[in-house]
Amino acid sequence: MGMVEAFKNEQVGSRLMAMGVLPGSRIAVVRQAPFGGGCYVKVDDFYLALRKKEAACVLVNHAAD
Amino acid sequence: MQQTNAPKHIALLGNPNSGKSSLFNQLTGLRQKVGNFPGVTVEKKQGEGRLPNGEMAVYTDFPGAYSLHPTSQDERIVVQELSNPYDAYKPDVIIYIADVTKLEKHFLLLTQLKDLNTPLVLALNMSDIAKQEGMQVDVHALSRQLDLPVLMISTRTGEGLEQLKSIVQQHLSPASLSNRASFYPLVGQERSVAEAVQQIVPEASAYQALLIAHHYKWLSFLSKAQRSLIQEIVETAGFEALKFQVKETLGRFERFTPFVRQAVRSTQNPRERMTEKLDAIFTHRFWGPICFFALMLLVFQAIFSWATFPMDAIEGAFQYLGKQVEYFLPEGWLSSLLVDGLLAGLGGIVVFVPQIAILFFLIAILEELGYMARAAYMFDRVMQLFGLNGRSIVALISGGACAIPAIMSTRTIVNWKERLITILVTPFISCSARIPVYTVLIGFVVPATPIFGPITLQSIAFMGLYLLGIMAALFAALVFKLLLRSHEPSFLMLELPEYRLPVMRNVLLTVWEKVKAFVLEAGKVILIISLILWVLASFGPPGEMAKAEQTGITIAEDKNLDETTTKDLVNSLKMESSFAGHLGKWIEPAIAPLGYDWKIGIALIASFAAREVFVGTMATIYSIGSEEQELLIRERMAREHHPITGAPIYTLATSMSLLLFYVFAMQCMGTLAVVRRETMTWKWPIIQFAFMSALAYVSAFAAYQLLS
Predict the structure, then answer these.
(1) How many CB atoms sit inside 10 A of residue A23's CB?
(2) A18 shares contact with chain B (CB less than 8 Å)
(3) Most CB atoms within 10 A, among B83, B244, B252, B680?
(4) What is the pLDDT of residues B568-604, one digit of tens each?
(5) What is the pLDDT of residue B548?
(6) C-alpha distances in angstroms, B98 versus B14, B18, B65, B101, B279?
(7) Chain B within 8 Å of A27 (Cβ-Cβ)?
(8) CA–CA gap between residue B421 and residue B116 (Å, rounded)
């Protein structure tokens, strides 16, 4: 569990923000996808499927908790 | 005072998974129709519903969207419609549906819509769950902060719907359109650019102008001149669209987050824990895919075992009907037209309604449960290997029902290349229209030997054909992946909604809508083609039919044939000299290497309109060619023999060749039309038609040559 600090990529960031992932949101990886795919992520009170590359664009501060 | 007689337009908007379509179904029931958005030829679901004062209103179900800064085709439709100041069908009121259990993330689009200055009503969905879980929602505070009418509803129980309708009715009067303060006031460069755009598009409101500045490149209501002027404004101002998009999103969230958090107090959510427990299995790295395949197997088995009884009943009913018509009508052309043309064609289609209904029923349930998003998540990596997207799996599964809605579901795929490949390969997935052809031909060549429990050799053969279609789709995708270039980014970023019990009303409405479309749309084509075939097969160039009859009788007398055989021979010769016979003969040289005679040729030609025509066509052709008037096509095919050599026409080789042809061939005008609509050019449907037909021909050829 950590806190979203910023996004490395504006394009990915703006999409994620529209879906409700904002700087300050709590975020955690729940599990990895089959076949070495992306991951299943919990953000505040909802769930998202992200590819590895997309997840890598989210800068997370783990110290916040 | 009555303003106009034109019905009021009410738009339903909301994020994906907000329960928008559920509300639409509640408001309109069976009075739904699918039309097009003006100008953009994109499917638009509309329905009628009565307001409390008795007036009829037209509701439009917009695609789910997160923001007016769109990333997918679905979202673009929303922006295109709502940022258009010229639209004559501009909604009179917008109903915005938000999931009250996750309110914050639904407010971005809500506040954007508010700034468009269209009367807006906020419906907070899932009031039943909120109550169950002891959630406290201060509706008045929200209403005050947003300066909007707000109410709680439940699309599941129907709570609040009457109140919603009367609020909507109140806001239909033009007087309610007060000039409200913007939720996100434009300042600095956003303001100056918007004002400059308003000089060029004077009808646009400030926020519409800002949206135009962001998205002028693809907004189709702008004229060429307007577009280039706006481009100049944006470029001279150095307007960085993406930066301002982020600023706007953050600005809106900053403003509404505090009051939303104050107005809504929730406790720990039990559905969340449930979803987590279920997903620990259903999206597990190892068990997840296994569950997926087990589910698909179950769907299959259901189509075949559940449908047997109603199918037998329908078959029986049509046989009975045919006998009745023959009994009551004098023998002649009318009786023949009704029984051989109309009933034979119609029976061939109605019989497949149970299978189609079951398939759509199960797919709608998976969709409603929230399982489809999980499948997309699990198979994203695999799909990427083939140049597809995780979301493609939704299209590929729905393609098992019908390629047309499946192709339309690809609008959620952001990357054009991935979307195009999905569109191109989806028709390879065996759709429900192929079921009739498979059923008849497999029933013909594969014995129903039981293998294990209810699974027979026939169901294995069926599965094999489906697998073949899937393999063809993946292989073709791979080829396109290597051929097509793309520099666009590709995304998954998919919301995984909490699992919820399907609302049966929604599921049944989907089934009803699809079955109706199949029976009416496909039925129309099938009926017309059956009737044309009956005419073509019953009449021929002047004199030829009579001559054929004479020849037949002469041959029969020479060979000393009995009465039935003589009649069959005469009928067969007559058919051969009919118009249909000439048509079949004309393509016979092309299809002879595949093992088909001219009669199958007729069915093939007819099938290019829609493949489900095959069985009806065969029924029509063989009814006319045969003395016995029963509807069991399979038995008739078994009796088909070459008129001279006496060898059976339907051998293993011919049947396999036909099966392969129907697995691969693009025989559906409806699909081609949709592909044209979604890709905006005839290029892709033509390419699709060409490669699918080529693959069909080559594989049918190989099968026949190897097996015969």
Answers:
(1) 16
(2) yes
(3) B83
(4) 677 777 778 888 888 888 888 999 999 888 888 888 8
(5) 82
(6) 6, 5, 12, 9, 24
(7) no
(8) 36
> How confident is the model over B271-289, as pLDDT tens digits?
788 899 999 999 999 999 9
Coil, helix or strand at residue B50: strand
- Mark yes or no for CB contact B377/A20 under 8 Å: no
Contacts of A46 in chain B (CB under 8 A): 102, 105, 495-496
Angle at CA of residue B656, ends B651 and B658, nearest 5°: 95
Determine contact: A63 vs chain B, CB below 8 A. no
Residue B121 banded pLDDT, cuts 50, 70, 90: very high
Q: Do B488 and B416 meet the contact criterion of CB atoms below 8 Å apart?
A: yes
A46 closest CB neighbour out of B67, B378, B495: B495
Task: Give the C-alpha separation, B566 to B572, whole Å.
Answer: 10
Q: How far is B149 from chain A (nearest CA, A)?
A: 24
Cα–Cα distance, A6 to B39 (Å, whole number)? 40
**Which of A22, A30, A34, A23 lies closest to A48 in space, CA to CA?**
A30
Q: Which two tokens stand for residue B398?
A: 């729905």
Q: Do B249 and A14 touch (CB under 8 A)?
A: yes
A22 touching B, CB under 8 A? Answer: yes
Mean pLDDT of B128-140: 88
Q: Which residue has better confidence, B675 or B351?
A: B675
Q: How many residues does chain B have?
A: 708
Q: Higher-confidence residue: B706 or B341? A: B706
- Per-residue confidence (pLDDT) for residue A45, from 0 to 100: 85
- Is A37 in Cβ contact with B380 (below 8 Å)? yes
Contacts of B269 (CB under 8 A, 6+ apart): A45, B101, B133
Per-residue model confidence as pLDDT tens digits over B156-181: 889 999 999 999 998 887 655 556 77
Q: What is the ipTM of this complex?
A: 0.94
Query: Would an 8 Å CB–CB cutoff place A46 in contact with chain B?
Result: yes
Chain A partners of B390 at a C-beta cutoff of 8 Å?
A: 37, 49
Q: What is the mean pLDDT of residues A35-52?
A: 90
How many residue contacts between A and B have a Cβ separation below 8 Å? 120
Which residues are CB-contacts of B493 (< 8 A; sequence separation ≥ 6)? A12, A15, A16, A19, A48, A49, A50, A51, A54
Strand partners, A7: A58
Q: How many CB atoms lie within 10 A of CB B420?
A: 20
Identify whether the C-beta of residue B540 lies closer than 8 Å to the C-beta of residue B578: yes
| Type of residue at B202 | P
Tokens of residue A29, six digits: 């990886």
What's the pLDDT band for B42 if we cut at 50, 70, 90? low
Does the predicted TM-score (pTM) go above 0.90?
A: no
Tens digits of per-residue pLDDT, B643-676? 566 677 778 888 899 999 999 999 887 788 778 8
Give the number of other Cβ atoms within 10 Å of residue B66's Cβ.
24
Alpha carbon separation from B402 to B359, B399, B406, B430 (Å, rounded): 10, 5, 6, 8
Amino acid at B661: F
Residue in B closest to A32 by C-alpha: B285
Mean pLDDT of chain B: 84
Interface test with A, best of B282, B372, B377 (most A CBs within 10 A): B377
Nearest CA-CA distance, residue A53 and chain B, Å: 9
